[in-house]
Amino acid sequence: MSSVGTARLLIGNGGEAALELTVEPWAETHQMLPKQTWAIVTHSPAADGSWSGTLRRNEPFQVDHRPESVTVWVNGNCFHLSNAEGTTIDSADWQCPAQGTAS
Ligand SMILES: [Zn+2]
Q1: How many structural domains compose the chain?
Q2: Distance, CA 16 to ligand 1 centroid (Å)?
Q3: pLDDT tens, residue by residue, 34-48
């Protein structure tokens, strides 16, 4: 599994109000409270660890910010969202290449 590419992104809500975080293309939405910082991890399906990308090649993430929401586009096969303590908040890992799923 050493050939699997891993990308990590930290997302912090430095504002005074809750922030809506959407993870695409799964359309998973969560409310981030002020002062929270979460980590999102994805794994590349490609043996060389490259990323297919949507707008540019070899970009694991794209972040689109709007006044009260943030959308993270994930270009890997999966996402793993966790809080600052490392506790999983949400994931879509049924195609995760790092977990060795058989299908
Ligand atoms: Zn994964």
Answers
A1: 1
A2: 31
A3: 999 999 999 987 777
Average pLDDT, the chain: 89
Tokens found for residue 84: 């600052």
CA of 17 to the centre of ligand 1 (A): 30
Q: Which residues lie near ion ligand 1 (Cβ < 5 Å)? A: 43, 78, 96, 98
Give the C-alpha separation, 28 to 93, whole Å.
13
Answer whether residue 103 is part of any domain. Answer: no
pLDDT tens for residues 2-41?
557 899 999 999 999 999 999 999 999 999 999 999 999 9
Q: Is residue 71 part of a domain?
A: yes
User: Which SS3 state, helix, strand or coil, does residue 99 take?
Assistant: helix
102 assigned to some structural domain: no
- What pTM was estimated for this model as a whole? 0.87
Residue 1 lies in a domain: no
Domain that holds residue 48: 6-93
